[in-house]
Amino acid sequence: MKAALAGDALAYRSFLAAVTPTLRSMVRHDCQGFGARVCDVEDIVQDVLLTIHLKGGTWDQSRPLGPWLSTIVRNKLIDTLRRRGRHVIIPLEDVMERLPAPEETECLPAYDVGRLIGRLRDSQREIVRAVTIDGSSVRETAQRLNMTEGAVRVALHRALRVLAMACAETRESGA
Question: Which domains, from first to last, does the chain contain?
Answer without folding.
Answer: 2-84 (1.10.1740), 92-173 (1.10.10.10)
